[in-house]
Amino acid sequence: MLRKVYSIFLFSLFLGVCAQAQTRYVGGDISALPLYEQHNSPYKDVKGNNISNLLTWFVNDCGWNTFRVRIFVNPTKKDQDGSSNPTVCQDLEYVTKLGKRIKDAGAYFMLDFHYSDTWIDAGYIKAPTAWQGKSDEEMAQALGEYTHDVLTTLKEAGATPDLVQVGNEIMYGLCGIQVHPYDHNGDNWTGYLGLLKAGCDTVRSICPDAKIIIHTDRPTNYGYNTYYYQKLVDGGIDFDVIGLSYYPFWHGYLTYQQAQTHGKSNYLVSAIQSLATKFPEKEVQIVETAYYFQYWPTLGKNDTDTRDVWACSAAGQYNFVKDLVDALKPLNNVTGICYWFPEEAGNGDDTNWNTSKGSVITTWLNRGFWNENATQNGHAINKTASVSGTKTAADVCAPYYMKNFYNQAPEGIETTMPSQAPQSRKILRDGRILIERGGSLYGLDGSRQ
């Protein structure tokens, strides 16, 4: 029995050492930051002071170590429906400059290839105009050559990406080539895998140290994810990270307790734990996440109203980020959290409308960390209270709290699986699993802690 306990201890120690050695990435997608800077849009920190450089502030004050930037082939400055959207502007020159700033700040640079002229996501998989009409093989060649040119340019400019997304939310297809994780109607896996192979192999050859991410948008649906990623593994696609978007108002709840309370069976923690079992060699990262703080848009038929868990307010946004960090920190296969569009702050400098610079955004999404309305001195950051002798910035403001994903964080969070009982099972930060009975905590071996 002693030998068995000692073996378990050594195995646990091994897992702990591996988990500590694994890099964790914390940050956000700041693709629109230069647009706000062109408007001289001032941001305020938690104490009300103006922030002179938001990128370095994220690094130095918030402890962020990773920034994502999207890239379009020939950006249209338009949304998928053709309406104006100035934030669809990230061409190679734009991305090279911003990527160099990220590297100069000492942070990791995540490059997000859209392989289109506007947003690619689950509902839009159109190829860039310059590639349309090509055969599957020609499309793969064009994608590979474009990827090569972009990465070579970035390397020569001192902006080598550390992480590369080969596509953005591509579970349903890419460049007009369609696949499905559910009814498989009209699937063209041969053509689709050809695209991914061209992209991933090029990344591996030009940036051999970069981690390759395949990004999908059904984070709580274990069946879809396992079918999709197994197809990639079986197809010989070389990638390192399962990248997930997680927006609770579209994707559902975070923990078992939340899902059970609302009569749901799918939730994020369970899906990620299942991915660790199915694909133990792959990291998982949340490469997009955000939460509303000002108004709640009209719900679609498949959307989830999570306001009884996280209010639509600055406090609700903070609590969502805190819960997400605390829930994912104990999961060893999760290595990254990237907040989407944290720099959002209305249409730019509200005192600067008489210039010819135009708007930064045309639709207020209210998911960033700064208030839409600017005073003469700048946009106020969302916070739950003032910083005081007992409250630090991380206690009241979401971007400051996020570093707890790789730094110290409060002990314990319940991550009970449906098949596990009792519901008071807790996984602590050091990896121990404890069960509460009668007011006392016990280890899985029955020992009282």
Description:
The chain has 449 residues and is α/β, with parallel strands linked by helices. The chain has helices at 2-21, 33-38, 54-60, 92-104, 136-156, 189-206, 222-234, 248-251, 256-261, 268-278, 314-328, 393-396, 398-401; strands spanning 25-29, 43-44, 50-51, 66-71, 108-113, 163-166, 173-174, 177-178, 211-216, 241-246, 283-289, 334-340, 370-375, 378-381, 413-414, 426-427, 433-437, 440-443. α11 (314-328) links the parallel β11 (283-289) and β12.
> In the CATH hierarchy, what is the class of the largest domain?
Alpha Beta
| Strand order, largest beta sheet | 1-4-5-6-9-10-11-12
Into how many domains do the coordinates divide?
Answer: 2
Q: Measured on Cα atoms, how large is the radius of gyration?
A: 22 Å
Low-confidence stretches: 1-20, 409-433
Discrete helix count: 13
For the biggest sheet, the summary is: 8 strands, parallel, barrel
Give a brief description.
With 449 residues, the protein is α/β, with parallel strands linked by helices.
List the keywords.
449 residues, four-stranded antiparallel sheet, single chain, alpha/beta, TIM Barrel, 2 domains, eight-stranded parallel barrel, 17% strand
List the helices and strands and how they pair.
Layout lengths: L1 H20 L3 E5 L3 H6 L4 E2 L5 E2 L2 H7 L5 E6 L20 H13 L3 E6 L22 H21 L6 E4 L6 E2 L2 E2 L10 H18 L4 E6 L5 H13 L6 E6 L1 H4 L4 H6 L6 H11 L4 E7 L24 H15 L5 E7 L29 E6 L2 E4 L11 H4 L1 H4 L11 E2 L11 E2 L5 E5 L2 E4 L6
Parallel strand pairs: 1-4, 1-12, 4-5, 5-6, 6-9, 9-10, 10-11, 11-12
Antiparallel strand pairs: 2-3, 7-8, 13-14, 15-16, 16-17, 17-18
Helix pairs in contact: 5-6
